[in-house]
Amino acid sequence: MRAAQAAVDTGSQVDPEVVQSKVEEVSDSIERFQSVKKKCSNIRKSATGIEADLDEIADTVNGHLNDVRAELSKADS
């Protein structure tokens, strides 16, 4: 607003088309920013879900390996 007021104070003409164009560009950039931010959030959620799945698989595998060890240790006894 100060820039527009300064232009009025100095007698310069404000070009409403330039202002409107720049406002539209800012609006487009904000929309793009929001879209990218949403994608980042979705990636984080997916990564968290994948990590949880991997932890569950690792726990299952470790449980099975412990069972195998237990069975094999019976043969050593």
Topology:
Blueprint: H1 2-9, H2 16-76
Short synopsis of the structure:
The chain is mostly helical and 77 residues long.
Which residue ranges are poorly predicted, with pLDDT under 50 across at least 5 consecutive positions?
none
Overall number of strands? 0
Tell me the count of domains: 1
Residue share in helix: over 70%
Mean pLDDT: 90
Strand content: under 5%
For the sheet with most strands, the description reads: none
Overall, the morphology is: rod-shaped
What is the CA-CA span between the terminal residues?
87 Å
Taking all Cα atoms into account, the compactness measure Rg is 31 Å
Query: What string gives the helices and strands in order?
Result: HH
Task: Describe the protein.
With 77 residues, the protein is an all-alpha fold. It has one domain. It contains 2 helices and no strands. It is rod-shaped. The N and C termini lie far apart (87 Å). The mean pLDDT is 90.
For this entry, give a set of tags.
single chain; 77 residues; mainly alpha; 90% helix; 0% strand
